[in-house]
Amino acid sequence: MARFGYFLSSEEFGPRELVAQAKRAEQAGFEALWISDHFHPWTEKQGNSGFVWSMIGAIAEATDAIPLTTAVTCPTLRIHPAIIAQATATSALLMGEGRFFFGVGTGESLNEHIFGDHWPSIDLRLEMLEESIEVIRRLWTGEQVTHRGKHYTVETAKLYSIPDTPPPVYVSGFGPKAIKLAAKIGDGFCNVQPDAEQVELFRSSGGGDKVAQGGTKVCWGEDEAAARRTAFETWPNEGLEGELAQLLPTPAHFEQATSLVTEEMIGASMACGPDLDAHVAQLQAYVDAGYDEVFVQQIGPDQEGFFKAYESEVLPRLRS
After folding, report:
1. Is residue 317 within 8 Å of residue 280, measured between CB atoms?
2. Which stretches of 123-272 are assigned E, i.e. beta strand?
3. Cis omega (within 30 of 0) for bond into 72
């Protein structure tokens, strides 16, 4: 049976709000958490981008047993793999055995361009991701590591605070090359599309029965029109297709691109309002596509209304 989790948006909410949401999600019966890792929000309206490694420490103390996955960290440009290895090892220790999962991907220019590095092609980014994960896993052993690879150099580095069991690495993938790499090097798979063909490609390319996680967004609210407007005003970038999300460098560029997105497009792409059948159907589509874990993000300020509706109606219906 699929498990259902809550998706913490580091772009839309401040650190204290996210910690409170994590606690409330556990109380409401969600079984896991995703948390995004961004330097910038997608748009100015979203307005936040807290440092995820600080928030994970706070969430570890605020919650009791719920596991958490970064969805997703790009361990290639903005932060060196050796530092990410230290951050993830510490996070795993704070969360406790079996509660921290390291989700990774090739990232977006939006977050990774900030030091003036050239934004690489997807093939090069996948190559960097594979080497980065190799470095991180070696450091998690607690052994002294010297690495001189094509993209990264590590000189006599050793982590002293490491968990007994290294965190599983879940790899995000959308195109065929990324999905096949996820199957090759990942302990699990992350995606945000209810696409059965992509899940099957992961499994048939070596992913087998490894965990596949899917994420989606909704905007629960008492008034459908108001909820749709909130979703459109806050997350118009959900209407962008293709590779734009990986290539645009600033929130201002996303705002220019989303001038082509309409409120009706956003309303058609996600459940907005109080119709619980629509919410159930949206999450069920991910289950039907073959995902083992499905994470849902509530857009907008009415978090408590969302949690009450999902606790009393949506989650029980999905589990039945």
Report:
1. yes
2. 145-148, 153-157, 169-172, 188-191, 211-218
3. yes
- Which stretches does DSSP call E strand in 54-162? 68-70, 100-104, 145-148, 153-157
* CATH superfamily of this structure's domain 3-217+284-319: Luciferase-like domain (3.20.20.30)
For the chain, the domains span 3-217+284-319
For 142, the 3-state DSSP assignment is coil
Which of these, 36, 40, 54, lies nearest to 114 by C-alpha position? 40
Cα distance between residue 110 and residue 170, in whole Å: 22
From CA 140, how far away is CA 132, in angstroms rounded?
12
Half-sphere exposure of 306 (CA within 13 A, CB side): 23
> Could you give the angle at the alpha carbon of 11 between the alpha carbons of 233 and 152, nearest 5°?
140
State the first-to-last Cα distance of the chain, in angstroms, to the nearest integer. 10
Q: Which residue has the tokens 């790899």?
A: 171
Q: What pLDDT is stored for residue 283 in this prediction?
A: 98
- Answer yes or no: is pLDDT of 87 > 90: yes
Q: What is the pLDDT of residues 208-261, one digit of tens each?
A: 999 999 999 999 999 999 999 999 999 999 999 889 999 999 999 999 999 999
Tens of pLDDT, residue by residue over 24-72, are: 999 999 999 999 999 999 999 999 999 999 999 999 999 999 999 999 9
Structure tokens at 46: 């979203």
What's the one-letter identity of residue 144?
Answer: Q
Q: Residue type for 150, please?
A: K
Q: Annotated active-site positions, please?
A: 38, 108
CA neighbor of 165 nearest in space, from 145, 141, 183, 188 = 141
pLDDT at residue 242 in the model: 87
pLDDT tens, 115-158?
999 999 999 999 999 999 999 999 999 999 999 999 999 999 99
171 near 188, Cβ under 8 Å? yes
- Count of C-beta atoms within a 10 Å radius of residue 225: 12
